[in-house]
Design goal:
The chain has about 325 residues and is α+β, with helices and mostly antiparallel strands. The protein folds into three domains: about 1-20 and about 225-315, Serine Threonine Protein Phosphatase 5, Tetratricopeptide repeat (Alpha Horseshoe), CATH 1.25.40.10; about 35-110 and about 205-215, Trypsin-like serine proteases (Thrombin, subunit H, Beta Barrel), CATH 2.40.10; about 110-195, Thrombin, subunit H. Helices cover about 35% and strands about 25% of the residues. The protein has helices at about 1-20, 30-35, 65-70, 200-205, 230-235, 235-240, 245-255, 260-275, 275-290, 295-320, and strands spanning about 40-45, 50-60, 60-65, 75-80, 85, 90-95, 100, 125-130, 140-150, 155-160, 170-175, 180-185, 195. Strands 5-4-1-2-3-7-6 form a seven-stranded antiparallel beta sheet. Helix 7 (about 245-255) packs antiparallel against helix 8 and helix 8 runs antiparallel to helix 9. The radius of gyration is 23 Å and the shape is elongated. The two termini are about 25 Å apart.
Length: about 325
């Protein structure tokens, strides 16, 4: 019995190593070239203050940024070679927090579009943005850790960190294709980082432009907690170890989206934390059945295999101490 569990543990460790081996840093020359396609955004607000963000050049005289960067702005500019260029029109997808700005005579290279839907867990990503008040673009590197189906695409969660000001910047695959837009992160030190998919950008490009100053609406991620997607509802309970809340929300998520690996993962994580190990094992295996590259599920199954092996070892020792009859 114990050999079987140790064999399971070894198999999981091999899978985990394989999943973790996908990361590869992109070529420096490619990253430097792409830096020229990501621009600083400055906005003037009615209260006299200035806001900052980032934007990606996605077409001739058009850049994409987050709507929350330009909300309530009296005017918006992008900085090219140190010079401000005023935005003259906007295409807004308020719900998805994506706004496309028209900037006349924009002298900056256009990025190549990739596909968010073709990404896989542990795929390499890198970001370009302008966090804080930096005047030069900042690059971060990481891997995909979550893909959440929504509105004909997938929202990306990755380990590539970003700070305030980088919103609207780009997330690129290892071939240098734009796959997502830096948008939001969860609270706390162990933050989760999310990117809106490039497919939504492509849809927005086909919409008509309107004048700046159009009435804004709340994005999906700013709604009341119960109106947000399940992948957002589970984060805080998981990070704060509020297991009963997580169990409730994850159960609802599984019932609503039974073919989503992440719904089963958070249910299994709650079961593991509450020591329902049999259910947790079955549901972590369901995660891997839906997504064999889910490294967190592998890690948990490894822990379960270790626990089971130790229990079996302890029972064997107790049995050896029992007097013969």
């Amino acid at each position: 019995m114990m050999k079987r569990y140790l064999g399971t543990l070894n198999t999981l460790l091999l899978l985990l190593c394989a999943a973790g081996s996908a990361w590869a840093k992109p070529a420096d020359d490619m990253v430097r070239a792409l830096n020229a396609s990501v621009l600083r955004v400055t906005v003037n607000l009615p209260n006299g203050k200035q806001g900052l963000g980032s934007a990606v050049v996605v077409a001739k005289n058009e850049v994409i940024t987050n709507c929350h960067v330009v909300t309530d702005a009296t005017d918006v500019s992008v900085i090219v070679n140190g010079e401000p260029h005023a935005a003259t029109a906007i295409k807004a997808d308020w719900h998805h927090d994506l706004c496309m700005l028209t900037v006349d005579n924009l002298d900056a290279p256009v990025v190549n579009m990739g596909a968010s839907k073709t990404l896989q867990y542990e795929s390499s990503l890198f970001t370009i943005g302008y966090p804080d008040e930096t005047k030069t673009p900042v690059n971060t590197y990481g891997v995909v850790k979550g893909l959440f189906p929504m509105d004909d695409s997938v929202i990306i969660r990755a380990t590539t960190p970003f700070r305030l000001g980088a919103s609207g910047g780009g997330a690129f695959d290892d071939a240098g294709n734009l796959v997502g837009i830096i948008t939001l992160k969860s609270r706390g030190d162990a933050a989760y980082y999310y990117y809106m998919p490039v497919e939504w950008v492509q849809t927005l490009m086909r919409k008509p432009a309107q004048a700046l100053g159009a009435k804004s609406e709340k994005p999906f991620w700013a709604m009341d907690i119960k109106q947000r997607p399940y992948f957002m509802q589970v984060v805080q309970p998981y990070l704060s170890q509020e297991w009963s809340t997580l169990l409730k929300v994850a159960t609802q998520w599984v019932q609503t989206e039974p073919n989503t690996a992440e719904s089963w993962f958070y249910l299994a994580a709650a079961e593991y934390a509450t020591k329902d190990y049999d259910s947790a094992e079955a549901h972590f295996k369901q995660v891997l059945a839906l997504n064999h590259q889910h490294s967190q599920a592998m890690e948990y199954l490894g822990k379960l295999a270790e626990k089971t092996a130790k229990v079996q070892q302890g029972l064997s020792r107790v049995a050896m101490l029992q007097p013969a009859r």
